[in-house]
Amino acid sequence: MWVLSTDRAELHYFSSPEEIPDEYATLSHTWNNKPWHGPPEQSFKEVWEIQKRCAQDGTNPRDFVSEKIRRCCELAEKHGYNWVWIDTCCIDKTSSSELSEAINSMFRYYSLAAICYGHLRDVDTVVFSLEDLEDRSNYCCHPRYANFRESIWFQRGWTLQELIAPRFFVFLSSSWDVIGTKADLADFLEDSFGIPATVLRLLASPSQFSISYRMSWFRERQTTRPEDEAYCLLGLFDVHMPPLYGEGRNAFRRLQEEIMKQSEDTTLFAW
């Protein structure tokens, strides 16, 4: 498992999350896949090359990585974390074995992190008061909730497990200001997306709910590649299977088969 040092944005390798000294943070975000989304994401290779170049001239790599990586490192360091895991640059995707391990371990990576920052690139800073959160009649019509609810972040497949798995999750605006925690916003998230507030507050495990019900949490989400519709759900159903990019929607059939091996819940066939 590769992680970045928050003070220098340098890549370091540890054999497992448990081997990382001290606690680590993670980032949940939507990738910049289009020019209008912002600068393209930096890969493992690009960050590694920056690190090597800076080692030669004595400069700090954090000053040369993308704004997203730098801002995340700075925030995590400010909160006292020495390490951060970011999916775009902490997985060497040229290695099929490393990619497979990361996809099958991602739910675990997020669940073992001390904090997960959820960066919503299309949401301006929103302030929710305790009074707002307690009045559920506001959820359907208040402009602040609408802006938050309509973020592309809530429409992506991978962000589902990134919301559910972490112990502590903080939503951040496009300018990296704190919006609120998933615990604070749990009732709103349940009303909007059907994910039980008890799951978001870690008072219940996803496994306590039927397979069909858990699948419904994914219903309105999308992935760029069809295979990822299955791969992004592996952790939610606690199954492991090797990713085979190019198999298309057959990946979802394989996911169903793996779930069947460990569950007699017939609601699976509703999907």
From TrEMBL:
Domain of life, source organism? Eukaryota
Which positions fall inside the DUF8212 domain?
A: 250-271
Question: Which intervals hold domain Heterokaryon incompatibility?
Answer: 24-162
Q: Which Pfam families match?
A: DUF8212 (PF26640), HET (PF06985)
InterPro entries on file: DUF8212, HET
Q: Which residues form the signal peptide?
A: none
Q: What is this protein called?
A: HET-domain-containing protein
Lineage of origin: Eukaryota, Fungi, Dikarya, Basidiomycota, Agaricomycotina
